[in-house]
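Write out structure tokens for Peptidase C14 caspase domain-containing protein.
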Amino acid sequence: MTSATKLHPGKRAVLCGVSYKKRKYELKGTVNDVKHMKELLIHTFGFLEENIRVLTEEEKNEHQRPTRKNIMDAFQWLIRDCRSEDSVVFFFSGHGLRHPESDGDELDGFNESICPVDFTTEGVILDNEINSTIVRPLPKGVTLHALVDSCHSGTVLDLSYVYNITTGQWVDNGPPSGAYKGTSGGLAICLSACADEDLAADTSALYGKMMSGAMTSSFIQAIRKKPKITYKELLAAMQNVIDEANQSNCLNTPILSRLFRAKMLQVISFPS
């Protein structure tokens, strides 16, 4: 990854944080995640503020609430009229789910999804939809970076290959059905909070006393320490953040102990 020293109109981002307020599964750190990511994109990578679309439950504009419709509309905006050398970012902090599938597109037999604020009435956004909306149309010369801080997010963009930091190996994630899941010539890269079968979590252990997503916090800290960083270095730096928190006994809740019991299950995916 590289940082920018000047503002760049060819950079565009959608930052989505879903809190699910007043529900038993409410999250406390997602809005903080969006705020921190926005600051990073502007001050480290030269994004223009007007080219960043924020969707959280704190936004006054109804079109900026993280509903299913608004997220899908933001996907369309993100890649509309992209040209070579443009860079686009999709960031999501919220809940993710798994769903049995029967069309032969998933090696493990499950679709992954992200949960909009209205997912109980309007439905989730499946990995198939994310792929067809922001991955498949990606033109030559355009790079998409997706960061998904949610449970079951390992292959949530349905990209063709995954790299697991715990094994140091690339795995073919191509669908058994043979369906094409790549781009239209562009490059898609996804950093996910955990493997498809695992859980992510909010924590106050990694960003002072402020609640935030564990993956988001480790990513931001790693980038701030070294803005010009390779992907391999980034994954190692994120792991170091987690290891330091482990050594200081900060990660002592049952969920976090399970999530970080060994190496962080960080997945990076590329198209074919």
